[in-house]
Amino acid sequence: MTTTQLPPAPGDPGAGGQVLSPAELARVRADFPLLAREVNGRRLVYLDWGATSQKPEVVIDAEQDYYLSRNAAVHRGAHTLAGEATELFEAARGDVARLVGVGEGELVWTSGATAGLNLLAYAMQNASLGSGGAAARRFALGPGDEIVVTELEHHANLIPWQQLAARTGATLRWIPATDSGRLDLSDLPAVVGERARVVAVTHASNVTGAVTDLAPIVARAHEVGALVVLDACQSAPHLPLDLTALDVDFAVFSGHKVLAPHGVGALYGRRELLEALPTVFTGGSMVEVVTMETATFLPPPQKFEAGTQPVAEAVGFGAAAQYLTDLGMAGIAAHEHELTQRLLAGIARVPHVRVLGPTDATDRVGVVSFEVAGVHPHDVGQVLDAEGIAVRVGHHCAQPIHRRLGAASSVRASLGVASSTEDVDAFLAVLPTVRPFFGLGE
């Protein structure tokens, strides 16, 4: 098993790196065994990385090796296997933490981004009920307080905050979206007002692909004393990410979108915030001293990791993080940016297709949602699948932004590290045949 080391990115890692050469990309694709299969007698063209990523062999091997030779309960035993398993588990935390620019003690394992956001929302509810003592009062919400989200959020970063507002009496507000599927920040000081306590925002929309201009949002939120919660589900797999430099207070991302196994994700929190945040799940593995009347809890991140953890999945997540680090996120971003340009330009040449979101590749990731006039997205997806092309159809767990852009649902083609020019061209060759297939003309 070998992986491709991309050329180092010049200057700021966020400025982008060099695009993969055909030979380099061929070596990357060879790392993903599933991409070699056929679907409906055709070469698989996987354009559903936004829903879940395919897994490189190093991740599959890491998870399998854990079960074959290291499997044991972590943080619970003194025997050799328990020690090795614990060492792997914590080493994986370090690998993932370094990928996103945070300290190991600032990364909590969760089952995914949704679990991380719910953990955070319920912890704030506990603070609102008095848990956590004086240190936790900074998280308490009540009538008169405001939680700010955006119209671009997928349901995972919307509904937990709706529910928290309903349970605490706080008011939910949102930053609107523009017709082009970006955030409208023209009235930011009014939306993120003096009563704002939480601002939860996506880093990149899973519908429009638009990358959020975070700096003014973070600055305004901190100006009024609000916490910034970043949903990095669609940025962590595709862009260089330094959560410390972005100055957000919390962030979440899912492992399965970042080449890792399903069932594992991460919640980042600034160390002093995690120390003050009340617990949500309690029980074994997160305690210091327990009597029949009371218990004291371990420092973070362990105080948020009650019970058995997804150890093999975390080990796989660590392998995925190391794989991406070895490739270089700046190079991955540059590669996907070039493919996104090609995808958008090709779609623009197909009549009766409307892209939901920016129609150029500036400040966006390779997530392209679109409608084909007169054809239901599910039918578009079936025509593509018949040719071996996998895309997502539906509302992508983001009904409000679809409604804002005048669509009930859409088709979504999304790119990943192993996507190729051939993938994009195969998709673009079939897309013009969709309407004629249903007798609608070109």
UniProtKB/TrEMBL annotation:
NCBIfam families: sufS. It catalyses: (sulfur carrier)-H + L-cysteine = (sulfur carrier)-SH + L-alanine. The keyword Protein biosynthesis does not apply. Pfam families: Aminotran_5. SUPFAM superfamilies: PLP-dependent transferases. PROSITE patterns: AA_TRANSFER_CLASS_5. It comes from the Bacteria. Belongs to the class-V pyridoxal-phosphate-dependent aminotransferase family. Csd subfamily. Coiled coil: none annotated. Keywords: Pyridoxal phosphate, Transferase. Its EC number is 2.8.1.7. GO terms for molecular function: cysteine desulfurase activity; pyridoxal phosphate binding. It is an enzyme of class 2 (transferase). Residues 45-427 form the Aminotransferase class V domain. This is Cysteine desulfurase. Catalyzes the removal of elemental sulfur and selenium atoms from L-cysteine, L-cystine, L-selenocysteine, and L-selenocystine to produce L-alanine. The keyword Transferase applies. One of its GO terms (biological process) is cysteine metabolic process. Its cofactor is pyridoxal 5'-phosphate.
